[in-house]
Amino acid sequence: MDRSRTQRSDPRRKSAASEWSQQFFLFALFFVGLMLLHAPLLRLPYFWDEAGYYVPVARDLFLTGSPIPQSTISNAHPPLVMAWLALAWRVFVYSPLVTRTAMLAISAFSLLGVFRLSRLAANPAVAWATTLLVAVYPVYFTQSSLAQVDLAAAGLTFWALSDYLEDRPWGLVVWFSLAVLAKETGILAPLALAGGQLVSYFLRRCSRLPADNRNNNDGRVDRWQEILPPQGRHTRYWHLLLPVVPLACWYTYHYLKTGFLLGNPEFFRYNVAATLSPLRIPLAFGMRLWQLFGYFGLYLLTLAGLLAMLRPPLTVDRVTGRGNHAARPRIAFWVQAAFLSVTLAYLAFMSAVGGAVLARYMLPVVPLVILVMVSTLWRRARYWWLIVGAVAIAFVAGLFTNPPYGFSLEDNLAYRDYIVLHAQASRFLAMQYPGARVLTAWPASDELTRPWLGYVSGGQHFRVLRIEDFSSSQIDVAAAAHSQFDVALVFSTKYQPPHPLLENWDAWQHIKERFFGYHRDLPPEDIAQRLGGTITYHKEECGQWVAVIAMR
Asked: Do both 475 and 509 map to the same domain?
């Protein structure tokens, strides 16, 4: 009796229970908010890489129980997110609504990780502001309901970084292991931190630094010494190397089942072999820097943070209005150094690898930049919350307005326009040309032949002749085979702004064509003329278009 009474009154138990209840409440809050904001998008058919890879892999796992896909060629991505989707379909039903709701649950969990990390690194005010900005940042917002793996890997990385700050070694091992099973690039963060741990160890050993960063002889603390993690922590570099084990196990299993270690040969060529060019890497590095500090309104936050650095730290308590004779605290230097090491790892790796320089690949580190900038504003700008509000407005505006340069449609609500245009064109084909032979390009080739993607019904059947895109050279190839198709479903495969920046700079156009797969689609009128057909359906929406051309 006395023992049970002692356990009930244990303050540590009460604190842990209170923390779990608070986190559950925050998760529910974030999830409900995301569901309300994404309500118009939850029943949309699948988009681009969703339709081309992730949903087919998850569906194969749902139907066969095997993590190796049967309906498409394996890219060797670890199966954690696809297994989550298969579980959701098993519990409920296979549908885009269930898929997107399951992904929003991952997004809410990731936002909770952002909040927890920000609160540990800074304070609750910075945590709320950072979480708000991350939630409405266009790339994060759109990825929240798309069935892809980058956001899940990012969210698990935030939870691992939180345990790293709290010095919970086995917690971070679990979170980082789950991150690498969500996407293989999740290994970058623990490897970067492990490298930092080793550097810290050798610096302390070679310089004989004090164990607790004590003051030197004249009473000052060496600033460079503050970037080293405090000694006495339980986290060791080998803890950060353990997530390599589940990733190695997955690749071993994949190799034994498919004969390929890092995906099929075409996937490896496009994403690795063809990208390791001495000229392409610095160009991609510049694009990654833009995605990290300037993309979709991030430049406003970056500029505000840099200008705030010119001001002294605030020393007034904004709650009581009284001076506290001490500057508002910054994020500890060793924490900033940890964030920097992870960010540099992603910058370097993603500049060297990846055929498409997609912004979603930087999701694990963009929130770290947002956190550091918001903390800087909180520390140095009196009306920092007004600046955060202005940046949030810019992020929301970026969801609905396209930039004056080419970008990936999945980075804002342009992906919704794409889906609507293709769904309407597919319904037109089904009504006017049932059973026709259709010339088109990927991903429309999958949209017309896989009813479970949501574009055509199960009773409709099209025979598809696929070309790479709708550039001049590909249309000429199709024209030579005009007897093999009855209609052509043509569409804009890349966003072309009305008045693009650098439009007349031929050197930049050549660089994009050579290194980044850029091409210019012919307008539907020119395609119809070259194919010898007639446009029977044509629709445009915010810089995108789709058309159906019937052969004469």
From this structure: yes
For residue 471, is it within any domain? yes
Sign of the CA dihedral with 501 first, then 505, 506, and 507 last: negative
Say how far apart CA 500 and CA 496 lie, in whole Å: 7
Among 311, 313, 335, residue whose Cα is nearest residue 323 = 313
Mean pLDDT, the chain, integer:
90
Which H or E run includes 164? Answer: helix 150-165
The string of pLDDT tens digits covering residues 422-433 is 999 999 999 999
Least confidently predicted of 85-99, 195-209, 341-355, 410-424: 195-209
pLDDT of residue 11 exceeding 80: no
- Give the whole-angstrom CA distance, residue 366 versus residue 347: 11
| Residues 342 and 365 sit within 8 Å (Cβ to Cβ) | yes
Picking from 56, 148, 85, 66, the residue whose alpha carbon sits closest to that of residue 454 is 56
Q: What pLDDT shows up at residue 224?
A: 65
pLDDT at residue number 1: 44
Q: Which residues pair with 463 in a beta bridge?
A: 437
Percent of the chain with pLDDT over 90: 75
Q: Which pLDDT score is estimated for 3?
A: 46
pTM, two decimals, is 0.93
Q: Band of the pLDDT at 199, cuts 50, 70, 90?
A: confident
Q: How many residues does the chain have?
A: 552
Q: What is the pLDDT of residue 269?
A: 86
State whether 303 and 375 are in the same domain.
yes
List all residues 6 or more positions away from 195 whose beta carbon is below 8 Å from its beta carbon: 341
What is the token pair recorded at 218? 């004249």
For residues 92 and 410, give the distance between their C-alpha atoms in angstroms, rounded to a whole number.
27
Instruction: Answer whether 489's CB lies under 8 Å from 439's CB.
Output: yes
User: Does any domain span residue 14?
Assistant: no
Tell me which residue range forms the domain holding 271. Answer: 21-409
Report residue 35 as tokens. 């569901």
Residue 535, beta-bridge partner list: 549
**Do 241 and 96 belong together in one domain?**
yes
Local structure of 436: helix, strand or coil? coil
Residues 134, 154 contacting (CB under 8 angstroms): no
- Statement to judge: residues 158 and 292 lie in one domain: yes
Residues 6+ apart with CB under 8 A from 299: 293
How many distinct structural domains can be found in the chain? 2
First to last CA, the chain: 91
d(CA 482, CA 499): 34
Give the span between the Cα atoms of 192 and 157, in whole angstroms.
12
Residues 6 or more apart in contact with residue 36 via CB below 8 angstroms: none
Scored b (16 or more CB within 10 A) or e, 451-488 reads: ebbbbbeeebebebeebebbbeebbeebeeebeebbbb
Q: Are residues 358 and 450 in the same domain?
A: no
